[in-house]
Each structure stands twice: as C-alpha cells, then as structure tokens.
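Sanity check

After download, print the first record. It should look like this:
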Amino acid sequence: MSTDYQQAREALGTRLRELRLQAPEGRLTGTQLAERLGWPHSKVYKLEGGRQTATADDLRAWAEGVGQPEAYEELDARLRGFESHIRSWRRRLAAGRRPVQDGWNLEVGRSTVIRAWEESVIPGMLQTADYARAIFLRYAELHGSTRDTDEAVRARVRSQEWLYAAGRKFHALVWEAALHALVCPPSVLAAQLDRLAGVIGMDTVELGIVPLRASLKVPAANGFWILDERLVVAEDWHAELWIDDADSIATYLRVWKTLQKSAVYGADAQGVVNAARRTLNTR
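Expected structure tokens:
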C-alpha cells in the first residue's frame, strides 16, 4: 500500500477517534460505539488505526453514533480526497472493467502527448483485442470482479483511435520481459508481437524497447503513464494512483527519461521484437 494512502487512512482514523472521545454525551469506548452501531468491536479499532478503509456509510454511521452527525461532511470529504488520488481496485471494479476503461479513455482524449513505461505487459494503447481480453480476464480472476470483458475490450480498442489523430504523440517504453510474458496463449502473444512490430515507424508512435541485457540506471519498477505532464497514472496491486502534483510528476518524468536512455529504437527495436517472436512455439 502506498505511503501517502496509508498516511491518509491513519489521519482519518485519528479524526474518527477524536470524535469518539469528544462525544457530546461523554466519551465513548470503542466497545460502546461498536455495540451502538451493531459492529464487531474490531472494526472500530481497525478504522481508527488506519488498518481498514472506511466507506461513506461507515462514516455516516460513525458521525451519528458519536452524536455529531454534522461531522459527516468533513469525514466524507477526507475520504473522497484521498480516494480521488488512490483509487482502490476493489471499489473501482465493483461495476466491472468497462467503466474504468471509459474513464481512462476520457483522460486520453484530453491529452496530446502521452509517455508510458511498462515492464511486464504491452501498453494498452498498442494491444490487440485478444491480448487485451487475456489481460482483463487475468485481473478479473485476481480481483473477483464483474466479468464484462468483451465490453472492456471494445472500450480499450476505441482508445487506440487516439493514435491516428494528427498532432498527437505516444512515447512508449517497454521492457523486453513484457515481450516474453505468457499472460496469454502463445498464438495470441505472437499476434501481439506482430502488431507491436507494425507500429514502429508510425508518425504518432515512438516505441522504445529496453533490452534485458541493457544497463539500467534505475530499477525497472512498476508501470506508469504520464499524460501531458499534468497527470501520472501508476498501477499497484491494490489500487491505481492518480498523481497530479508538480513535484511528483517531475519525478516520474525524470524516471521515464532515465529509463529511455537504456532503450533501443527503430530497426534495433524491431530486431528485439522479432527475436522474441521467433522464440514462440505457436503450433
């Protein structure tokens, strides 16, 4: 879990504890509040300790339970504040992957220059429909989320229309490991690599491949995207991070440019992709 996210949960928990101890009718113990709300007492202490993320309903119940219903708006604003930047997959995928992809497409549509770093998968803007389907199914299994896979695939393919508009540029960096990762059947990966080789030379796409044997000036950590230097979107297992403060964006841009120094382009990139393609047994 990100440090910022955990700190925000702990700060919210501290505020919840203050409200419990400052109840107008007298301070409440955690056990008393739990009984009043019909919760297991452990939930009260998990929320106060920042070990569980509250829902809006939890916060409303808490405010009413401690006799301070007017505090709900403040608590909810705190929750929405950190969830707007740390977007829990559990909550975001409750309605399936399609709404998440639609929201992403809106941000892409607002952008002119996009930079991406992916260390384990082919960037979504360059995925074939079959490869995207395999990725979505893997994550649906992991998160136990609604399987609206075909709708999500169609939404992802629509986002790729961005690549065919004049005046836009997609700067993609991919670690060579992603070219070998069998997150899909070999035949699907083979077609995906063919697609990847085909975008080399497009005027709106600059594809760099970081070879496995390249010297890295920074570790090849998790993937991230930089949209017009106004927004960074990075994925973790529990959440997607949306980062819009200038200092953090500058850090991610610096990381991207450092990784770029290890990349190969043009014919050299084509050679790395073709070599990966030859290793696949698609019979």
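If your output differs, re-run the checksum step. Summary of this record's structure: The mean pLDDT is 92.
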